[in-house]
Amino acid sequence: MPKYAEIIVDISHESVDRPFTYRIKEELADSVTIGACVSVPFGKGNKPVKGYVVALSDYADIPVQKIKEIENVLVTRDDIDGRMIQLAAWIKEHYGSTMIQALKVVLPVKKTVKPKEKKTIELCMEKEEALLLLSEYKRKHQSARARLLEELIKERVLDYQLVRGKLNVSPVTLDKLKEQGVLTVHVQDYFRNPVIINENRENDKVLLPAQQEITEDFINDYRSGIRKTYLLFGVTGSGKTEVYIRMIKEAVREGKQAIFLIPEIALTYQTVLRFYHHFKDRVSIINSSLSYGEKYDQFMRAKKGELDVIIGPRSALFTPFSNLGLIIMDEEHESSYKSEGMPRYHAREVARKLAEMTGSSLVLGSATPSVDSCYHAKNGEYKLYKLTERVTGRELPLVHTVDLRKELKEGNRLVFSRKLQELIADRLQRKEQIMLFLNRRGYAGFVSCRSCGYVMKCPHCDISLSEHKNGMMVCHYCGYTIQKPKVCPKCLSKYLLGFRAGTERLEEQLHQLFPGVRILRMDGDTTKQKDSYEKILSSFKEGNADILLGTQMIVKGHDFPNVTLMGIIAADLSLAANDYRAGERTFALLTQASGRAGRGKSAGEVVIQTYQPEHYSIIHAANQDYEGFYEEEILYRKMLSYPPVCHILAVMVSSKVQKEAEDFAGKLAALICKSHPEAVIIGPTPAGIQKINDVYRQVFMIKSAEEELLIQIKDILEKETDAVKGNIPSVMFDFDPIHPF
Ligand code: ADP
Ligand code: ZN
Ligand code: ZN
After folding, report:
1. pLDDT tens for residues 118-144?
2. Distance (Å, rounded) from C-alpha 317 to C-alpha 315?
3. String of DSSP letters for 415-458
4. Which SS3 state, helix, strand or coil, does residue 253 take?
5. Closest-lying ligand to the alpha carbon of 482?
């Protein structure tokens, strides 16, 4: 029987943002469980406050006489909240954050919002009687009454809004009819449904043999009570979504609920429609464009058992279903599944934990699985399903790789290679559409040679160096710094430059090259407004432009049957990002971008422009060869001990005083050096962004094959940080970073 409980008090104040230890009285021993809501005396006056139990233990590391006692249990573990708090505790432990920060993650809806009312009007008399009344209204030319009664005879119950709007019946008339006992008005609480769907054109599809086989195998597992993680690796357009739907149907058939995770940007109206076709109003969505009330309502609908399926980004994981049975994560390789705020959790890992806690299965799906998931599938930890062909049977597009170094040598200084120009002109003439993709994410001032493609890299880390304003180049992994050379170290050309090219500049050049061309541009600037993303896409689909030019936003989602050419302007941009996942990200982006061309009747062509045509990410993407890419990538990860072979704990120390940040980071690193001589420590060094808002940031990393060891190390660092009083540097953690500090 545990003697002590760690409790997070329900006070939102930084200084109490940690668990406090309380003694458990014997009579409460059974009811004090993790997740229970209890009342405890707090502070000097011992004022009773509410708190949540987040851990139990047999010993306490503070003097026993100082420990207060839990007064009573207010709410015995409500299964839902208890589970979420357990999950928060896991997130806190796993990613290093305060408990309150973790609680805020798992309880995305904190306030309650009064539900909207739904009014309906019901006929209160028998049909015969109503028909008599109707003819009387008609005789007296009471047309509003007649209109209403006619509809009520047909439907019996009508929506109040419809009656007021479409039928144009006034409240006065309604009141009269109510008094006369013709009808009644019902008022009900009603939770806003963010999607209103009228059309229902989709037919049930007969699964193709490959889809059928996977679905059957999954259902077999599910019915035998097997719960595990699956990786559905299916090329774009291979019918994964159809398979997901069948899997969810199976879970729902057994009375369970399902969460369908999707990167926010990929959530299209088309996908939602398909789910509505199958699950009607038992499915709902949450996303950032919903109002606060709408979001709250979706959680309430889930809690009350009105929903079987929720679709949404990361935060949909925390939907309070009472009987969760399946989590599906589409596009599982997407880096947006990793949170960039504190705690820096990865939705894939949290989903695995949640699946384990709830006895659910987890299905990860992608056309370009993350190296991480593929590694687990190859190890046999995940069950692997493959869909290797497109539903349409269409050939994959023809890919041309253009060497930009050659273009320069042969005198073309434009961003568009001659091959790409030629194909654009051809498509314009044939009235087919074109997409141009500028892979700008990952741009970090990397320096490359325009003549030979050489990228300046750190000799210790195989990570590209970033150019700083003072003419120095820095490795953000180990701190290695050198002066930027005047000429390329490999070919002595003087075209050694930081890469810069924006979508706006591309648009200008296109107008010069192809006068009169109609261009839609989609990037961070043109999609600031709500709905603008969908608007641009549908406008393009309707044929309002010849070219859609944009950043990675254009790669996801919609099918454009009339697009027969995809141009990738500078494939190297993401390659040069200064982290070890650059190759993986580039491969995924190029493969997904290529998959956009030729989804309709005509075959597609893709042009990949690059300074490094010999890079394995580019070669394998051009061949649409995932296996080939994976084999090379995993070798590289093994050689340099990067995840998933190894784990990395990144620690960032920040302070307004540069020296304080440096000193404290140094102190922490030295501490670990001593306590864990076997761990590999890299740094400390200034972070990728050295200073934000006058706060200096120092980073160091610890590598280990043992995840548990890193968690122990994190605990030591947390303790050390807690022990420092006063105005201390703050410390942040990141496991297996995706967005480096
Ligand atoms: P993915 O999710 O792998 O990109 P989808 O499930 O969206 O693939 O399927 C691609 C297209 O093929 C969609 O338009 C879908 O409606 C259609 N489709 C999928 N499965 C079938 C099937 N068994 N029969 C007919 N059409 C299908
Ligand atoms: Zn060179
Ligand atoms: Zn380095």
Report:
1. 778 888 888 888 898 999 999 988 888
2. 5
3. SS-HHHHHHHHHHHHTT-EEEEE---TT---BEEETTT--B-B-
4. helix
5. 3
Q: What tokens does 63 get? A: 């003097």
The answer to whether the Cα torsion of 60, 65, 68, 70 is positive or negative is positive
Q: Report how far Cα 350 is from the mean position of its chain's Cα atoms.
A: 12
Q: Is 501 in the pocket of ligand 1 (CB under 6 A)?
A: no
Select from 269, 391, 541 the residue to mutate for testing ligand 1; criterion: most ligand atoms less than 8 Å from CB. Answer: 391
Distance CA 666, CA 679 (A): 16
Neighbouring CB atoms inside 10 A of 527's CB total 20
Distance CA 553, CA 522 (A): 7
Continuous segment of H or E residues that includes residue 76: none
Q: Could you tell me which of 331, 307, 313, 328 has the C-alpha nearest to residue 259?
A: 328
**Helices vs strands, H then E, count in the chain:** 22, 31
Judged by its nearest atom, the ligand closest to the C-alpha of residue 331 is: 1
Other Cβ atoms within 10 Å of 647 Cβ, number: 20
Q: 3-state class of 169 per DSSP?
A: coil
- 346: amino acid identity, one letter: H
Lowest mean pLDDT segment, chosen from 174-178, 232-236, 444-448: 444-448
474 backbone dihedrals φ, ψ, rounded to 5°: -125, 140
Cβ–ligand 1 distance for 207 under 6 Å, the answer yes
- Specify the residue for token string 């950043």: 551
Listed ranges 41-45, 197-201, 510-514, 687-691; the one with the highest mean pLDDT:
510-514
What are the residues facing 236 on neighbouring strands?
none
How does the average pLDDT of the chain come out, rounded?
Answer: 84
> According to the model, what pLDDT value does residue 198 have?
54
Q: Is the pTM of this model over 0.70?
A: yes
Each residue of 465-506: pLDDT tens digit? Answer: 877 667 788 776 677 888 989 899 999 888 887 655 567 778
User: What string of H, E and C letters represents the secondary structure of 124-137?
Assistant: CCCHHHHHHHHHHH
Between CA 415 and CA 404 the distance in angstroms is: 9
68 Cα to the center of ligand 2, angstroms: 69
**Contact call for residues 548 and 578 (beta carbons, < 8 A):** no
602-to-392, 433, 632 alpha-carbon distances in Å: 12, 11, 33
Q: What distance in Å separates the CA atoms of residue 517 and residue 248, rounded to the nearest whole number? A: 45
- CB of 391 closer than 6 A to ligand 1? yes
Q: Could you tell me the two tokens for 413?
A: 């200084």
